[in-house]
Amino acid sequence: MAETLEGKTWEEMLKQILPPGTSIPDASANLDYSIAIEYDGPPVGYELPTVDPVSMSCFTSIPTADPFSDSQSQLVANGAGPPPVMDPIRLPISRIAGCAGSPPLSPRGSRSSESVVSVLQNQEFSDASHSQSPGSPHSSATVQSSPGRQPNQPANEVKRVSVVTFENVQKSDNNEFYVGGSASPQYVAVSKKEKRKRVCYRCGKRKWERESCLVCSARYCSNCVLRAMGSMPEGRKCVQCIGQPIDESNRSKLGKSSRMLSRLLSPLEVRQILKAEKECPANQLRPEQLVVNGFPLRPEEMAELFSCTLPPQKLKPGSNASNGNTQVYINGREITKTELRVLKLANVQCPRDTHFWVYEDGRYEEEGQNNIKGRIWESALTRLACSLFSLPVPHAASTGPRDEAPYSARTVPEYLEPKRIQKLLLIGPPASGTSTIFKQAKFLYGSKFSQEELENLKLMIQSNMYKYLSILLEGRERFEEEALSNICENGSVERHTEGGDGNDDNGRALSVYSISGRLKQFSNWLLDIIAMGDLDAFFPAATREYAPLVDEMWKDSAIQETYKRRNELHFLPDVAEYFLSRVPSPTPLNLFLSISASARNLFFAAIEVSGNEYEPSEKDILYAEGVTQGNGLAFIEFSLDDRSLLAEPYNDNPDIHSQPLTRYQLIRVSAKGMNEGCKWVEMFEDVRAVIFCIALSDYDQFGPPVHGNNKPLLNRMMQSKELFETTIRQPCFRDTPFVLVLNKYDLFEEKINRAPLSNCDWLSDFCPLKTSHNQSLAHQAYYYIAMKFKDLYFSLTKHKLFVAQARAWDRLTVDECFKYIREVLRWEDEKDENYVVDDSFYSTTDLSSSPFIRQSNE
Ligand SMILES: Nc1nc2c(ncn2[C@@H]2O[C@H](COP(=O)(O)OP(=O)(O)OP(=O)(O)O)[C@@H](O)[C@H]2O)c(=O)[nH]1
Ligand SMILES: [Mg+2]
């Protein structure tokens, strides 16, 4: 260009710019090749002409058309379609009468303001709703899809709308604009969230494949989806929609696979996202959406509904929960065919159009007749049929006045109802070992862990790893502060970074516990979300992004130094070490020659456990804290072999072996949130026994109170005792036998010789005998604690407390516990039948298999 500038006329230069053969215009006065530049000279002495601004009161913006695509121009060039026509911009008059041939229904917005070529209704974009405008994903304006067009219709001759309105001009979050118009009078009332089909809401580009937000239906292309939806803690939702309920029309899509996600993410990640989508609280039906007999459910009713043994599946909002089709009504609800069959079995006459009224205790009459015809569930057969078909059987409590209870769970001998499931509620203060016992029961008597359960356990272990990591990081901060203040006070340099000058680039002091800025950032992030209780929301999707940093951190010498002082990290559970210090094989040693052995172990454990390929071993599962992620309700059903040693004396009847085994349902709940007047326990009023688990080793430990955060640390045994008292005081457990499992005997045994029981005020009057009778201190102390609880229980309930000992890590001891519990249930049954086997208060202290059974320290 430089040469062309020199000595060439403007005609010559122009010739080079214009296509060959084009004539050069004459240099006339009007010819203007000037380019606008900003004037920055001195102020002018005259008034500059101005253009009145267009009134924007009705428009948020002037709608513009999409760029004219290559394929469109191709079609035009081939004569396959007429040239595109720009839609005239409409004035904000409320209605403009239109006719066939009037412009397509909605001028569209585009971020490109250079191109003003109108939308060509081209095959490429053909779709029933192709002419819609891109709209705000979060707006609720009305939009009408084009009624579509005939296959042979020319591309641009879509059916024109008769009326176009401009009332719904919207501005979206990302500054794109659209105008929604009502197509024709019959569509005006149709209010549907506007959809910008084929256009990505984020980049505005047309893409075939998009993923849409379950809340606002915003659609994103594969380039944008991860940016717009983040780590998808609630599945496919834009980040700003997280926490909001889904659009109900999307309910059937919950958890259904997505090709785009499968392409972008690993199968495990997709599974995790889809699982979160299906299961996260925000995406669940809300009680008020479920209508039963014309009334929306209350939260507690909903909780009750979903806590039953066979909760309803695939409920839809507003669905008719009665779902009957028999023209027979009970309490205003049309019953189902199965229910009708059971009624017939119960000898209830029910011709069509009968309206029954059934009372809580099973008495029934024809509506308005005031003439009780009988009791529906009177016969065992009816009850059996009901339990077979998962139909309700009235609670023992509701079958009339308590003392007459005609068929309470207690008084119907087990063998009359072989199918009845004996529910066992397993409960205990945090970290007492309930999950461990639950998992042992599953290993012992239950079915294998399903793929899904394994996946859950894996996630749980992985998220626990982050918790342990955060405890380490917190410890590191503490140690760093200590070290730095030591340095300041003593001028001591002994803990300074080796080889460094003790300062970082910014002149800040450093200690062996100091980490780099990047790691510090990660550390702050993790500690923040843990402190906010948000880990579950971020895990696993967001934490995955940090995986490389986790690796880096494990390798860091500051973490290694912190880990050396793990005994000072009180919140680091014992099992953390198990998970943190595993060395997987094969060991790529050469990679890690430069780091110490313990750091290497941490590193491997982190990589192994946090990796996708990690599969938890049986031991991992057992040692992992919790049963389910989030530690919710968990239950299993199993039966026990009845031919235990303890059972034999009662099994004289040879028929007993031909009868089906008793089924048990073990329900494990976290005791968190249980307090006086607590409602949810009432859901378990029909349990056969409460298994209350306490960690013996808690007697010298202090922890934050279960209720309330700012109170001083409390002795954990005292906390367990309080929770125990609260539980036994629950009215719904008034007649329920309690089995106290004193767990963690292994830790207790090891601890008792160095820490006296008097660490716990309640246990301060323990007075061990000289161990002349071969009775170890631990045995005596255990027995003493058992008696303390029995006394307490008796004073409050006037009943006997059954006590068993366990080391939940040892499967055999858990097996013994359950066999003991089975015996307790038998004793209770027989007691109810007046075959009182054992009435002494003290003889039920412990398992008869225990060597300490007759050794009281009284
Ligand atoms: N040493 C020892 N540790 C045990 C025993 N039973 C459980 N643990 C460990 O104690 C910790 C707490 O046990 P969990 O079974 O998770 O306790 P939990 O009752 O479910 O407690 P939350 O989950 O807090 O409700 C886990 O790390 C267990 O591995 C035991 O008998 N001996
Ligand atoms: Mg647990």
Automatic annotation (TrEMBL):
Q: Which residues bind GTP?
A: L622, Y623, A624, E625, G626, V627, T628, N743, K744, Y745, D746, A808
This entry's Gene Ontology molecular function terms read: G protein-coupled receptor binding; G-protein beta/gamma-subunit complex binding; GTP binding; GTPase activity; zinc ion binding
Q: Where is this region: Disordered?
A: 68-89, 124-158
Print the keywords alphabetically.
GTP-binding, Magnesium, Metal-binding, Nucleotide-binding, Transducer, Zinc, Zinc-finger
**Does the entry feature the keyword Metal-binding, yes or no?**
yes
Question: Which named protein is this?
Answer: Guanine nucleotide-binding protein alpha-1 subunit
Q: Which residues form a coiled coil?
A: none
Polar residues compositional bias, start-end:
141-155
Question: What are the TM regions of this chain, as residue ranges?
Answer: none
Give the matching CDD domains: G-alpha (cd00066)
In its keyword annotation, does this UniProt entry include Metal-binding? Answer: yes
Bias (Low complexity) ranges = 129-140
Per the record, its GO cellular-component terms are:
cytoplasm; heterotrimeric G-protein complex
The record's listing under InterPro entries reads: Gprotein_alpha_su, GproteinA_insert, P-loop_NTPase, Znf_FYVE_PHD
Provide the organism lineage as a comma list. Eukaryota, Viridiplantae, Streptophyta, Embryophyta, Tracheophyta
Give any single GO term for biological process. adenylate cyclase-modulating G protein-coupled receptor signaling pathway
